[in-house]
Amino acid sequence: MHFVRAKGILSSHNGMNLYRGCSHGCIYCDSRSRCYHMEHDFEDIEVKENAIELLEHALKHKRLKCMIGTGAMTDSYIPLEMELQHVRKALTLIDQYGFGVTVHTKSDRILRDLDLLRKINQKTKCVVQMTLTTYDEELCRKIEPHVSTTGERFAALKKLRDAGIPTVVWLSPILPFINDTRENIAGILELCAEAGVYGVICFGMGLTLREGNREYFYKQLDCLFPGLKEKYIRTYGNQYEIESPDNRKLMKLFHQKCEESGIVHDNDEVFRYLQEFEEKDAGRQMSLWEL
Known about the structure:
This protein is of the alpha/beta class. It has helices spanning about 50-60, 80-85, 85-95, 115-125, 135-145, 150-160, 180-195, 215-225, 230-235, 245-260, 265-275; strands spanning about 1-5, 15, 20, 45-50, 65-70, 100-105, 125-130, 165-170, 200, 205-210, 240-245, 275-280, 285. The protein has eleven helices and 13 strands. It has a six-stranded parallel β-sheet with strand order 2-5-6-7-8-9, with helices on both faces. The protein starts with a strand and ends with a strand.
């Protein structure tokens, strides 16, 4: 890891990334793309040493309360977080100043902060977003090698449910010729139903590949699925959006399973829910887009 001093911490939409880079090793990670201008090795985590100071200043001076988001570019609960506790410190400030929060992760380490998540959710709104891609545990360990398995994430979702904390699942990415099967999609959605998730976000059955993450993805395919890289190249060339040949059938299954389970599956509706700030004691709602 290495430290930098940041000039700011919140984006125009009130999102933040306390770290840059990741050690989870997911073979498909879009954050490796060169367009994000990460000028260091991806596994050499960049830590914004003044992030908590910047966050407190920002929260103190915000005119209106809103939802604060974290984990969009770098998972909030990389192993380093257990040592530095930047996310926990940030959650403490968010609770102290009365803001809502949504945290995006693939790790059951989020349960360490269940006490703070519950406190925030009692006063405003706390939503945990969890990515699930692969129902099969063995395959999960291949394509997401250094993060909680699907089973461990599922257990975390149930604990969050029992604590009254709403959850949203990202069904993404789905890798053509690897996990784009009916069994995989149905299996994940059955877990979502059992865990009582509010909604599932899905942009289609596929993934994105661009300079930076494409090279890493193909290198991992050579190691884990020999011969598959050549099939990708023959099928997709240098396309940015890589769609499963079974996209239409799998999306029909996705919407059908969500409908049967009462899971919100319209992306716009889920995003509105994530963006709406709620003051539970006053019964008032405000979207972060109004700020």
